[in-house]
Amino acid sequence: QDKLRKRNRMYHVLPALVNPERCASIVSAAKHALPSFKKSQGVMRRMGIHGNEVMSEYAVLKYWRMSKSLKALVDDALPPDVRERVNEVWLLHFPIGGQLDCYQSKKALFNCLSVPLNDGGTFNIWEQGKPVSLTNKAGNGITFSLANPHSVSITKQADWYLCCLFLNHVSLDEEVNSHA
Predict the structure, then answer these.
(1) Residue 88 and residue 86: Cα distance in Å, rounded?
(2) Can you give the pTM of this predicted structure?
(3) Axis crossing angle, helix 68-77 with helix 20-32, rounded to the nearest 10
(4) Distance of CA 146 to the CA centre of its chain
(5) What is the C-alpha to C-alpha distance for residues 111 and 166, in angstroms, rounded to an integer?
């Protein structure tokens, strides 16, 4: 019954997908690249379900804008099964007090893999109409459809995520080999 419950979840946790030491290396390098990150302001902001009442605050660095050394760290951290299937990769940085307002794509076009790069923050994914709060553990992967409501709670620390986007027919659930 537990296996059936896991299969029907709107999200899947892939434990120890990325080695915590590799996560720390990416965060260290990303801190030096922070001036290259684009803040979620103006046209770069993500409008969540609360509209202008709750403004998401984070910064993003797309893979194609990363330095060669940061790209190499990201490539080395991701399991080959992920690298072969990914359409897009980016890093997210949430400063203290940052957040992602609840967001939901109108169409189920893409699946996302979100890998917290540090412990402690909170990622929320809705299941059966209610938010499920997942405490970040560096290196664990969380897969979900962008059509499922999801958010990042207001941060009490700087939180970092490595995110990958896949077409909606690509599933990583329980078949990805850990690269830890």
Answers:
(1) 6
(2) 0.88
(3) 160
(4) 11
(5) 5
